[in-house]
Predict the structure of glutathione-specific gamma-glutamylcyclotransferase.
Amino acid sequence: MAFWVFGYGSLMWEPGFRPVERQRARLEGWHRCFCMRSIHHRGTVEAPGLVLALDRQEGAVCDGVALAVAAEEAQEVLAMLRERELVSSAYLETSQPVTLEDGRRVEALTYVIDPDHVQYCANLPLEDQALIIAVAAGGRGPNSDYLHNTVGHLEALGFEDADLMWLAARVRGLTPVS
């Protein structure tokens, strides 16, 4: 194994590579939230969507998934992750200590928000987030799909995120049935 990757949003359900090991994991000191305007994947420059990012917060914890990358795939996976995650430089590529479900502590490649970046939008009220997510769409599809996939995978893993669950219910109520 070459390295670990911590997934807290779409990397949990669509990592883009086949991990050699996958475990539930916890990252301390960071909060998962919709604090990044998406102008590529889930929105456009004209109508930005929102995507999840990790925002530093004292006492916070973020539950997610740690994915181990095979040594022989390390360079290819790292290049793919950088192309995907660093598309607008709003994320910072960091190494963070995470605790795996089996008790091991490992360093994991973790993408966190750059609080100085123009796409950073901390502390948007949940209602405002829902109104954006309900209508935004970008290169990877509707913003609402991103939200619902993330919530579904968190629930399947046994994780609860009250804000995301509220958002999912609210966005369902705002989205017309086709």
